[in-house]
Amino acid sequence: MQATDNRKAAIKKIKALVYNQKININVYRQKINEVFYTPILPNHVECQDKKFGGISCDVLSPEMYSSKRVMFYIHGGCFVGGSRAAYRSFCSVLANKCFCRVVVPEYRLAPVNAFPSAIEDIQAVFRSLFTEEQIDRSLDSEVPEFIIAADGAGASIAMALLLNLKEKFRKCIKKVVLLSPWLNLSASSALFTSKKKLSDEILSSEILQQCASLYTYESNYENPLVSPLVAANELLEGFPPVYMQCGGKEILLNDAKAFDTLLKQLGIECRLDVWPSMMHLFQLADDYLKDAHDALDTLATVISGIDKENTERQVFENKPVLENSLKRAEA
Description:
The chain is an alpha/beta fold. Helix content is 41%, strand content 15%. It has helices at 7-15, 25-36, 84-98, 117-138, 154-164, 167-170, 190-193, 205-215, 253-265, 290-304, 311-317, 319-330; strands at 46-52, 55-61, 69-74, 101-105, 145-151, 173-179, 242-247, 270-275. Helix 2 (25-36) runs parallel beside helix 3 (84-98) and helix 4 packs across helix 5. The two termini are 34 Å apart.
């Protein structure tokens, strides 16, 4: 039975993902794992430990999935925290809802491994994963289908990956999914220029600045690999469709709206869904918030095309998409 909304508990849980300099980094990382790690994965999702490009990754496989679709998930954690173990349960929910495997890399974290270490790791994983999927799909004459997904500071890293990708990689990306994304750490962000005091139950502009300073040097904040919102138009040419979710009460919303406008002006498909009463990264508190469940169901529909309210009929209609994995399940 789904619990009724418990906003106080949800905020307490999500705050474990937010770093501030009053906390020892190792204590912060441990706290994230304590709050988010669960030994038993939901929905009978299987977890395999595998290396791509020399980087350890989780490969999460639900009972039923499209054999050619893979979600590549870059976790958040303010550039200095987060782990595949902490995100294992949440990404298992995504795997089950979106009918796809989810790959979650254990990339290096700042400040010991500052910019561009995380980007280098993510690129190495994606290129290795892409090659393996391409080889596997060639036997069926199919093209692999990737979803790049990320939350919080992970969105900056995910966007850096995408901005660096060559066309042959980009054309296999079906969708980019960003949850409460960090898109602009430069001085031009409304976070730092607004005269109005911005209220947020989770984040503050001071926290963002602190984390940015641990990730890279100040003169690099204008780099589009750090602040994708300031990317030149030519860098966004041929960009894949983007889907974003934000809470209406988070300070990052204005930057998300600006990015949505920018992409649409360039003729790039983009959709921004806003949950008016929700906070930063509310989706990760789905055990406390009904809106989090609704948001994840919407995300799943955007990715898979399967409507939760009519799942049985639409899975039948999508049988060619799911055929290979169903055959494996019957074998």
